[in-house]
Queue: 4 jobs
Job 1
Amino acid sequence: MENTMTSRADAAALIDHTLLKPESTAEDVAALVAEARDLGVLAVCVSPSRLPLADTGDLVVATVCGFPSGAHASEVKAAEAKRAVADGADEVDMVINLGLAKAGGFDGVEADIRAVVEASGGALVKVIIESAALTDEEIVEACRRSEAAGADFVKTSTGFHPAGGASAHAVELMRKTVGDRLGVKASGGIRDAEAAEAMIAAGASRLGLSGSRAVLDGLK
């Protein structure tokens, strides 16, 4: 890709190199870590049962919580987050209770997020709002509640919802809502440099990618 606005190095510094397929093996995860180090990305993101990771070097280690449905009891999410941090996670990407959000129960959404934030003991918490399944008004309120609950980031998508993944519109709306107070992570369906650049231009400060090499190769 020519005339890109983002350099390969700058993009790599935003990437959570991700492997969350349920069928992934220990060998697959080891390969992910090795590839992440080779690519010079910021972080790897894996399922919590894959922790602790070996040979991570300077990589940030992220995991998921209440994934992918978000329809777990808050106590279970909190326990999962606490265990993940004990197992070496630096960051926890949790899924909101979508059913509560769709029903307008945002006090419950906020309480659910807060339970995970408190259980994470200072680890960075990203809140997956599953933006493709929400209206604009619901996206804004989910972001507001994430901030009120003490989260560090809001994140578009799990990448597993049938409604779809990240969109530049959702990222822009999320960034407008949280300003520079929280990070915004775009994830789900970002497969090439053009899509990655659109997310960065819209306000994303982190990218969740499973095909990081293909994206970075488009930014040479």
Job 2
Amino acid sequence: MNETVGMAAAYNDKPDVYFGEGRHDYIAQLPPNTNAKILEIGCGNGSTGALALQAGKCSDYIGVEIFPPAAKVAEGRLTKVHIGNVEDMPLPYPEEHFDALILSEVLEHLVDPYLLLSGLVRKVKPSGLVMASSPNISHWRILRNLISGKFEYQDKGPMDRTHLRWFTPESFRRMFEDAGVEVLSVGPVAPPRGKARLAAKILGSGFEHLLFSQVSLIGRRT
């Protein structure tokens, strides 16, 4: 319990927006289903779940959040919120219970995301949606810093000091495949624009990962 409290305290200095950016892109991926059940790990203040419920994409939206102040706000928006560290929390739902699983910018904060993901995927119905995102450690800015001998933690971004794990698009894909997910797409959270878009065309598909600041994955449980 004390360890969980200590981990939650690490988020005390985060601005409110850190816990409250709804994922409109994920809501767009969800089929209209007023009977669907959705599980989100790291639900923040419940912004994404509120969008899903308002859009008629589900009847039950269950969230898990480690930071109590954000979770308390989410409780007023979602069907149910479990407050605590998901790695230490047995979730009271059977296998094949949920129609979709959302993990937005959360796996990088976990001690063993590989083990947790396998268990979470089993709670999703066969062919149920799995959507996740995470910072991309192979972004060109991070590689430039590594070449310069720099590996410095920051208050936000890919090198956020609360991150415990890092992924490339390929390692992110492999983690989900190993957990029993058929990966349908892996790409940037937001498509490159301006100079980055031009660079993507020049580099070609073999190097486009250098321009992803965040990786977005869409898949289905096998």
Job 3
Amino acid sequence: MPQPAHPARAGRGGTVKILLTADAVGGVWQYATDLAQGLADLNIQTVLAAMGPPPSPRQRDAARSIDGSTLVETHLPLDWLAESPKAIADAGRTLAELARRHDADLVQLNAAALAAETEFDQPVVAVAHSCLGTWWRATKGDDPDSPFRWRSELTGQGLALADRVVAPTKAIARATKEVHRLAQLPTTVHNGRSLRPVEPVASHDFAFTAGRLWDKGKNVATLDGAAARLPFPLHAAGPIEGPSGDRIEFNHIHALGTLSDREISSWLGARPVFVSAALYEPFGLAVLEAAAAGCPLVLADIPTFRELWHGVAVFVDPMDANGFAEAISLVVRDDFARAEMGRQAQLRAAQFSVEAMAGKMAAIYQSLLRPQAAATLAQEVAA
């Protein structure tokens, strides 16, 4: 991407300000608000530009509680729900104007397609949380069909134009580079999560999963098959219907619906076996939450989970319902192994902190800002 048309300013009052996009549909919201809080602790202001369906009252209150952060509900379409390339281009131009209006020093896009046809005045960081191309490759084994291909092409264009591309794992960095034929491998910055302490309760024999249950990439159908073979329940938290009409029904899983963070913490406090059969998972914040609570992990054998949880989880072929049932049952029946796996997962989870994530992102911002703003950022971070 060309250098900014004018030197980036150091925000109002000498403070660096980042325009950060977010959406309330999936894990990107949690990522963005956690990052905004981590950046606030480094004296970096954020403008949270919420796109897509409006945030819930609970999400809105959480975002507004972050010091130095301004929530702007743009009502702009998400790239994967936009009906045309023009809609994405228009959204990009609106964000560019928003960045100018808020005197931002840098723009972080959590959907790279927004940069495909937009010239921002500021440096742009594109974070490859997920995209249609890598999702399609992981779930279907090839490239998107022609009715969807334009979305993937816009993502590739935006990634190529960004000043820096970041991915939450090395696995998704490699997949993104391959699918979109990038000249350079994206920089890996592992996600971090700001978690409340989980109040332990009496341990119970059950399995638990959480996430966008309707998403075929989560492959919850395999877990439904596994649940039929378990002598105890498998509970699942999260929506069963997506914003584009995708829906899943269960025969054996006990669906809990969408739960609050506090409600999920209550379930995790019983230290169930946390299970994921995902075919596609660029990071997996739900797994991190479960690990931080001391839950033993039984996970799909995919590159992302191997990268993050090797040595502390049991891995199963994501299409093997019998394998999941057997692995879950073995963990539940062995109290010592269950406790030790939970302890090891908790130790690993401590490595993925918001402080580490925010510090690494701040270093990337500093490398891209013009000298005055970069010097201001260095002073703020050191303060």
Job 4
Amino acid sequence: MIIFRLIGESFRFAADALRQNKLRTMLSLLGITIGIFAIIFVFSAADTFRSKLQESIDKLGSKTIFVQKWPWGGFGDYPWWKYVNRPEPSLRDYSALKERLEHAEGVSYEIYADSRTVKYRSNSVEGAGLKAASQDFNKTWTIDFQEGRYFTENEGKSGSPVIILGADIADGLFNGEPAVGKKIVVMGRRLTVVGVFRKEGEDMLGMSQDKNILIPLNFAKGLFDVESGRYDPTITVRGKEHIALEEIESEIQGAMRAIHKIRPGADDDFALNKSTIASDQLDVMFGIVDIAGWVIGGFSILVGGFGIANIMFVSVKERTNIIGIQKSLGAKNYFILLQFLFEAIALCLLGGLLGLLLVYICTLISAALGFEMVLFMKNIVLGIGVSFLIGTISGFWPAYSASRLDPVEAIRS
């Protein structure tokens, strides 16, 4: 109880000192406030972007692997010349993989053509993304319908003229009316709508199905060359839930090497891409952003820390005779030390809280402008922790020098 009483008295002394020197207090807070604001603003913006990007990446699925020509992660020293002569994934590769893979929940062959026009009577929607996929597309991707259904087995095998629309495409063509059963025109062909994807909304990577249309792969073969590199052919494999991702990847790699007749020791002529690659790239990219935040805010905090240390030395000088009186009345050295140390910590905490308040105001402004930036709890704790640490470091030496004053000399000063 005595310790708590001493701490309370130290806080009261510190609060009185801060109230009596309002201008000096505000000037001392400025450096800390700007520093904490810079660091936490950068971290909050980066964490918000990271969270939204990670949500997009999670749509790929934790057990999904994409067999493609190009590996993901084209940053830094990217040896593109190694990959340019690789073959595109072919229908032969797809058929062979589908027969050989034991750990696969589904295997699909997919292509994508952008900027297509979709027409229904006098209405038309431009800029639609056209996807063509084999029958297992609904097994390799998680899809939901707000209307209708997926392709039947017979429709997929026979290449029936059927189509599934994204929610935005359906709204643009039918203005809220039921879409299933209506006939639309795509690339000069009439197709029957059998389903509409559930509206997903925009994400950071643009992987929403809202502006896409999906047709059976066998029907697309009559429209264009589905094995052409122009349409980014991809073999998507989703592994079974109880099988480890590494085991699924190893099985695909072995099967593809056998299909392509690659000699032992030779490099693969295909890429196996997965969501963890994108996540690792995000960690590298945002790690650099975090370092930039520390550098930007660190200089302000450093200047603010020196400013507070200087102010505390001035405060000790002004109150030297009061320190002497306190000591002559029995105040211990640690009481004097705590009194000035708490004053420095209180200054830094107040500056840190003001910096956090500015960041919170920025989150409100960003939400009003259409981009929701989030002030995460870990960043609040970080801001308070950094403020406390700077206050302790800046205030310790002035507080220690005050606690070591001789009471007689202090009173005489």
